Each structure stands twice: as structure tokens, then as C-alpha cells.
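Researcher: Good morning. I'm working through a list of sequences from a screen, and I'd like to move beyond sequence-only analysis. For each chain I'm collecting a predicted structure so we can compare shapes side by side. This is the next one on the list. No need for commentary yet; just the structure.
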Amino acid sequence: MTTEKSGADILIEALTDLGVEVVFGYPGGAVLPIYDALFKQERIRHILVRHEQAATHAAEGYARSTGKPGVVLVTSGPGATNAVTGITDALLDSIPMVVITGQVPTALIGTDAFQEADTVGITRHCSKHNYLVKDPARLADTVREAFYIATAGRPGPVVIDIPKDVQVATAAYTQPGPIRHKTYRPQTEPDPALIEQVVDMLAAAERPVFYTGGGIINSGPEASQLLRELVAMTGAPVTSTLMGLGALPASSPQWLGMLGMHGTYEANWAMNKADLIIAVGSRFDDRVTGRLDAFAPHARKVHIDIDRSSVNKNVRVDLPIIADAGSALRAMVDAWKTRGHPKPDLSEWWRRIEGWRAADCLGFEDRGEVIMPQRAIRALYEATKHRQPIITTEVGQHQMWAAQHFGFEAPNKWLTSGGLGTMGYGLPAAIGAQLGNPDALVIDIAGEASIQMNIQELATATQYRLPVKIFILNNEYMGMVRQWQELTYQSRYSESYSDALPDFVKLAEAYGWKGIRIDRLSDLAVSVDQMLAHDGPVLVDCRVAKLANCFPMIPSGAAHTDMILQANEVSGEMDDEAKALV
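Model: Good morning. C-alpha cells for this chain:
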């Protein structure tokens, strides 16, 4: 059945047919026809953010926590350019998202019209794909194709730019059929012969390590369950990237913790001394590998990834397997069973790992009534772990402390900006996660600098009555910048101290939130309980030790074996090559 509809109505109809329930956006002149179409329907809920960057991060949080693609609607020109940071963030962290932007009328494109920007050109290199739709008859098929591309293979953001005249012109709308792209058909199933090969390598290895990443989370909950089954059968240790936390429970005895620049001593040493590394859904990022010529020098490396371009890009591997992480893990579990491999004796390997664990690299000392940031994170974890909260973060020291000291038992509970490292991500991501999981406890662990990047989104949570919690680790510095200045530039703290911080409690109350300030360690537990007992949004200003640093760490340009465990191991000056890698 076909009916004539305006382009705006076709867009809304296509989104509805695709099952879209929530759109994050901000109106403007170039999308007024679409907003009018939204006004006349009741099937899609629009969430009015206060900044277009926040719309993209909210869509990311929604997508990451639910497994559904996030949808964004913004106007032309500054609306689209404000969204670019979030689009890039989603690209680097492989988040499925469709961003719909308004554009000036077709006849005005290229004339420097009011609020015109070359959205397709600007987003070409920070999106998975993009479109400029010039014919309303092509709009519905374009939307369906965009959702397919955003979610198939390695997920990512897709941009659809729609001129205003296309929004008001009419065309026939056809109910959708099966979506099948002519050329983009990513390989999801692994080669069985390669799976048998990696399983045999794993059975023969004396010092194996599973190196897992966000690809397991993106593959869906079944992939995490299959990982747990596989590591239980093989007895091998598991470490994870920042984006992969929660795929294996943090309480598992086979869990080594996060690896990389601020990873654990045992995870990094195990990677360095392994004879077999099986990378699943991870990409050998520079923050993981450290100095490339010293990375796992004695290990054979297997790389399982759905994105062919990620294989052999940073680290040469011995066995590449192109496949969806979940499909590959299922095939490995089946192959291990059918080939009759017994559980290997890795007792000697585990004895070495336990020796590295004994270093207690995440240990710290309390300082009287001063709140150590690690203690604050652990107090938050102990008070909330029974509820398995969704944790978002901003970017900086607090992000790394959260990754180190908050234990995640399930996937889709940890939402952070890994690849781009975007300050301002956490609050809008928490809003998106709360909308997608209305009954969940959602907490944004923030820094006092990062939270101000999108602080206006307090109003969004108030408007939609979202009980989001913000827990600020306030040390009055851009903490990670200050730490690097201490370690690299002999403590020359150039522009990293915050001279004019707001009263966060009063600021929270101005937006209709409950505000809580914590100044002493003895007040920490009861204040966290007060935060959790309040059924509306809460902002906690937790004043922590000002000069605490995040350890352990691998200095830029160093090898895993050069980890710094304490501040007294740092010289305060690095060579120019290392500075360039910060």
C-alpha cells in the first residue's frame, strides 16, 4: 500500500516502522517541518536536550545501555557542527547511531545561505557513512539503509542530511520490506578451519591470555555469556580494555583487571610474558600496547574482529579471524568441545600471575579525614553493587579510578568515552541510559572540570523527571592534565587549576536537583546513602585529595614492564618523544 506524504511525515513513519521509540534533539529553522510532524504523532518520544553535543552523547548512552541504535535530530549549520564531537565519539567507540540533520533548501546549497554548512563534507571522515537526500521518494529507503549500516558489522554513526524543501515535498510512502544492502554485507561468521586452529593453539599454550574489548559488549549479551563459558573451560586468564569492562565479571578469579596505561600490574605483566594472546573485539590501541616494539614480544597473537581494517593496523598478528565476536566465541566453545580438549594445566602460569597480584597495585593509604578518590569510588561501589547500577563517566582521573575500583559484573553497565576521550560525555550519556532503562540506578562519576562541559543538561533531567545521580570527585584541578604536568613538565601546572568553581550544591538546587557536599571521610558513607535514598536527581560534590595521582600507569612511549606503581618512581621529566605521545 502506498500513500502520498510529506518528506517530514515519511521520515517519522520510517522511524516508527523501524521501532524507534526515543529521539534526542534540538529544534531549529531547517528542521521545523520534522518537528511539526513529531508534534502530530504519539509513537516516538522526543527528548529536548539543551545542546546538540548532548543529544549525541545521550543517544550514545541510550544505545550502549540498551543495544538499540540511538537517534538524534538537529538543525542545519551550528546544530550539525555542534553534533560533530558526539558523532566522532560514536565512531571511535563503535556506537550505533543515526543522526538526522536539517539542511537549507536544495536551491540554496552552496550559496553560503543562513545556517548553511557542508554537513556531508564535515562528517565524511567522522561517520561510518552519510547521505544528502535530495528526493523525498528516496527518503524512506535511505533511512532504512542508514539503520542497517549503523548496526551491521562494526557499529557506528550514520548521518542523514535533509534539505528543508525535501521535508515539505510529497512522495509515495511504501511499507518497508527486508533491509538488504547491495554491497555492504560484513562477514559475521568465522572460518571454521581458523577456529579449529586457534582452539588447538589455546589447548597447547602454556601462558595464554584473553585480551577482550568493546566488541564483545557490542555483539550483545550472549557474547559475554559465551566468553564466560569459554574461559571456564580453558582456565585461561582474562584482561580487558576500558571499553570491554563487564564482559567477564570483576569477581571472577580469572579476571586480571583492565590492562593498558592505567591497567593493573598483573594484567600488563601477563600480556608481556604470555606465549599466546587471543584478542577478541579489541583493536590493539596505543593506550593498551605501550611501546610497540616491546609489546608481548614472545607471544603468538590471534586477532578476532569484525572490522577487517583493524587487523594488522597497529600490531602484526599471527592469525587473523574476521567475524562477529559472539559468533567467533560460540564457534570456539563448540570446537573446544568437539575436539575433546581437556582443561589445560596452567598452574605454573597462575602462580606467576599470583606473584604479580601480590604487588596490590591498586592499593592506597587513607589520609585521616581527607577523602582519597579511590576510597570514594569503593564506597560508591559497596553501597550500590547489589543493584548493578549503570555507571557513566566524564573523562579524566575520575574515569580511570572508576574503571580500576568499581567492579562490573555484567555488560552494558559501563558507559564511557574511550577512543575520543570526550569531556562532557557522562551526564548526557546518563540521561540517555536512564531513558532506556527507567528502573535502573544510573550514576555519572564525574570530575569538577568535565561536568561543566555539559552542565546545562541538568535541566533535561529535571524536565523529564529522570532520577540520575552525579557523583563528582572534586579536586579543583583538571586532574589528568595536572598529573601529566607533574610527571612530564616538572610540576609546571599551566592552566590546569580551576580558580572559579561554582557552588555545586547551589547549582544543583537551581536546576531542581538535590545537592550534597562531602568534605570529610567520616561523612562519606552516610552521604552516599542519602544520595541513593532520594528518588529524584542528585548531584554530590565530593571533595577529594587535591594532588592524588592515578596509579599504576605506563608512561607514554614505555613498555608494559616499565609500569609506575607509586609517585616516587617518577622523575618529573620525559624526553621529547615521550611528550609527543601523551
